[in-house]
Amino acid sequence: MEGVLNQLPIGLSIGAVLLLIALGLTFTFGQMGVVNMAHGEFIMAGAYTAYLLQGVGFLIALPAAFVVAGLMGLVLERTLIRRFYGRPLDTLLLTWGVSLMLQQLARDLFGAPNVQVASPAWLRGGVGILPYNRLFIMALAAASVLAIWAYMNRTGQGRRMRAVMQNRRLAATSGIDTGRVDQRTFFIGSGLAGVAGVALTLIGPVGPTLGTYYIVDAFLVVVAGGLGQLRGAVLAAAGLGLLNSYAEFWSDASLAKVVVFVAIIGFLQVRPQGLFFVRSRALT
Amino acid sequence: MLSVEGLESGYGRARVLFGVSLEVPAGRLVCVMGRNGVGKTTLLDTVMGVLPATGGRVTFEGRDVTRLRPDQRVRLGMGYVPQGHDTFPQLSVMDNLLVTLEASAHRDRAALEEALEVFPRLKPLLKRPAGFLSGGQQQQLAMARALVTRPKLLILDEPTEGIQPSIILEIEEAVERLHATGLAILLVEQYLDLALRLADGFVILDAGRVVRSGPARELQDEEVHRLLSV
């Protein structure tokens, strides 16, 4: 029984990490129609940032990773993705190539073997079945969702972002500089992946292929949650994290993946538009 | 105020406009007319920079704007209400107006009140998502959104198309009142009687070219009727 309960914080914290990753994807995929496979490498970049900043302070690693991954996203958007708007399949191939290059770059810089980031002392231990590091990850994700929600709904920049998301052409003819909004969106979305990377250092080793383990699951969260839907992403991430960890607990890692994929395929048969979707006159 | 010279544009290899020229003098309402598919919307989209011009020039207040982005043109004072009463469906009516206001050159909140004075019907709907408004209400919102930027020139693409008759009148009156305040307007309109009531001058397009233009009184001609009849 205790084993079953132990899976709960594990599943929820994995869900929390997936949520952080999926938030960025839901912006860039749901809003700009860009399938960014290199998003996984922004996670990896965030994790290595935490690795480099060991000893400087874990709480400094979080904003630093946000900025590092965010800037990488910004550069990618400005140099390559910008030229491929409206062509999702091309962006997939393009960013996949970038993803492979970034993985090789990480191998050259940090070596192929995984490295371990020492968790800060105050995150060791726990209360009952709840380890502090897993609790911290959940709190981090919750705080990020709140911050994103507030940004989108309470600021002028967020309002412009939603406007571009809903009707890019109309946004441009309403006076909104859509290019600038895209840059900002890419920066924030990629930065969140970096934060997710820091969170991952608390529960496992860091390696050049860290991002590839999570990117597919994160895309599943985006699709299952409904494109561009914040609450959909939250529910889908929690569900996927729990399903993953319990399926692994009762079988093994590869069978668990099969279970998850079958569940998602089945779910999308019933609800192809995801958990939440937009119903309105203008979209019919 | 707005001067279009030899404008050419199209979609990919399909050319739609073959050298269109027209003038909108300050304070005047010019009506662009023509049958379906002659390039009216393409013309407006190219004037606003939604479509790139492949030839010719667009000059606004003496400044060449041919290569500017749409949002830059808006900040110079060109207000555009595209066809099909588009809104940001998930944003509230208020947010629809605010997002445009915040992107405008002046950012003066008083402009919000001014726009709502023109379309008072929107006042009780401010908190509603724009996607839930009726077609007529959405069209009024679309026009109010353009007004919030305090344009010097308002570009309207078939503002009464597909709108319930009760609201068509209100929209017509609004256009008339805005014109009376001295706002220059470039209007695309299918209906001759409406054009006759509102316009100072007209331009008739056929197959991507200007085939007739002149002061509004000439709209009574036999030839004009022939060009506009289907």
UniProtKB/TrEMBL annotation, chain B:
Gene3D superfamilies: P-loop containing nucleotide triphosphate hydrolases. The keyword Nucleotide-binding applies. SMART domains: AAA (SM00382). Pfam families: ABC_tran. Keywords: Amino-acid transport, ATP-binding, Nucleotide-binding, Transport. Belongs to the ABC transporter superfamily. This is ABC transporter ATP-binding protein. It comes from Microbispora siamensis.
